[in-house]
Design a protein that fits this description.
With 136 residues, the chain is α+β, with helices and mostly antiparallel strands. Helix content is 18%, strand content 38%. It has three helices and eight strands; from the N terminus they run βαβββαβαβββ. It has an eight-stranded mixed β-sheet, with helices on one face. The N and C termini lie far apart (37 Å).
Length: 136
């Protein structure tokens, strides 16, 4: 079985104070805000890598708790293929592919050998940025 594709990567971190975090990353670090989901804000860091800050992590996403307040998100158009691939390799599935209406995404959660929460997702929001090569 061939490995499905990964188009982009987002590391999501928990924040107790999203407005203060937004000021820091937008004003001081001057990272471009690429998507405001209300409870989460996603910033471009370079290339096709992104940094997201959320008031809550896995509770709103519907998966178990994130280890250390971190979710490693791999953006892919092939969420279902990743589900099949991970199951074939006996990777623990935390939540099968599901439509998440809150964030307008299609997602799957799994665990790595260290207990970190992995999310494989497709952004359904038309405002999600195109790969860096196509961005201004």
């Amino acid at each position: 079985m061939d490995r499905p594709t990964i188009a982009q990567q987002v590391t999501f971190l928990y924040t107790a104070d999203l407005p203060r975090t937004a000021v820091f990353y937008e004003t001081i670090l001057q990272l471009p805000l690429v998507l405001d989901q209300g409870a989460c804000r996603i910033y471009a860091t370079g290339g096709d890598a992104y940094l997201g800050f959320c008031r809550t992590l896995s509770q709103e996403a519907g998966a178990g708790p994130a280890s250390g307040g971190v979710i490693l998100t791999l953006v892919t158009p092939e969420v279902d293929a990743w589900h099949d691939y991970l199951r074939a390799h006996q990777v623990p599935i935390e939540k099968p592919p599901t439509l998440n209406n809150t964030f307008n995404i299609y997602q799957l959660f799994a665990r790595d050998p260290n207990g970190y929460l992995l999310e494989f997702q497709t952004f359904l929001d038309p405002n999600w940025p195109k790969p860096a090569a196509d961005s201004p």
